[in-house]
Design brief:
One of its GO terms (biological process) is negative regulation of DNA-templated transcription. The protein has 255 residues and is an alpha+beta fold. The protein folds into 2 domains: 62 residues, Orthogonal Bundle (Arc Repressor Mutant, subunit A), CATH 1.10.10; 142 residues, Chorismate lyase, CATH 3.40.1410.10. It is built from 7 helices and 10 strands.
């Protein structure tokens, strides 16, 4: 995303006043969304105080509508109360492909920083997800994902060391996990059990993603399987909701 720039109030082409007879909040939200679209991504929006005084509405009304636009991914907050126009892109649709390949296919530049990469003992819940005995050796990998140099997701995943011996020895900042598993061990992803929920990030994850703890995120918990039904990996990752859109397709099975 481009570095945020200040947008002078004179450049925003704000209406002089709200129209009578219509809810003020609805009008304000429409105006702000239009301004954000015209301004482009990464641009600083007017302050809550300025908007409240300009349109003659309560500051709480302004904050409420800005929060709604933040939840919708139109705006995002940064550095306290500053609000910027968001860039909606890089929707990670196919959970069976590698992150790197998926992002490159969308015309954006991916980058990875390894936060944690160690062999650990599986606790009972994780052991059940990986279909291994409790205490079995598992490789726990945490990576901070970037898109065009902006933090995008904190991905956390676990794999059985018995099934993938030596997996902890690879450089996971430069190599694709899925491609390496397929090329090194001949295992190909076939299907994924996935649960998606909306959450607020804790302070640590918010700092990693460069967002406020009040900004909504998506938790995606999944178990990846191969063609025979064997478990490849089990993970629980956090994605920025303003940069990530989930698409699904549903089809009724024949009766």
């Amino acid at each position: 995303m481009p570095r945020p720039k200040h947008v002078p109030a004179s450049d925003l082409r704000l209406p002089d006043a709200l129209q009578p007879g219509r809810p003020k909040g609805d009008q304000l939200r429409e105006i702000l969304e239009s301004v954000a679209t015209d301004a482009g991504p990464g641009r600083l929006m007017p302050s809550e105080r300025f908007l409240a005084e300009h349109f003659g509405v309560a500051r709480g009304t302004v904050r409420q509508e800005i929060n709604r636009l933040v939840s919708d991914g139109v705006l995002y907050r940064q550095h306290g109360t500053a609000t910027f126009t968001a860039e909606r892109q890089a929707a990670h649709i196919d959970m069976l492909t590698s992150f790197t390949e998926d992002m490159k296919a969308r015309g954006v530049v991916p980058k990875t920083k390894v936060l944690h990469a160690e062999v650990e003992s599986a606790l009972p819940r994780l052991a059940g997800r990986l279909n291994v005995p409790p205490g079995a050796r598992v490789f726990h990998l945490e990576r901070l994902r970037y898109v065009d140099d902006e933090p995008f997701a904190v991905e956390r995943t676990n794999l059985s060391v018995d099934r993938f011996p030596g997996i902890e020895l690879f450089d996971w900042e430069t190599q694709s996990l899925h491609r390496t598993i397929e090329e090194r061990w001949g295992v190909q992803a076939e299907w994924n059990d996935t649960a998606i929920s909306a959450v607020l990030p804790d302070t640590g994850d918010a700092a990693l993603l460069g967002i406020e703890p009040s900004q909504p995120c998506l938790i995606i918990e999944g178990t990846l399987h191969d063609q025979s039904g064997g478990v490849i990996e089990a993970g629980r990752s956090l994605y920025r909701a303003d940069r990530y859109t989930v698409f699904t397709q549903a089809r009724r099975s024949p009766a």
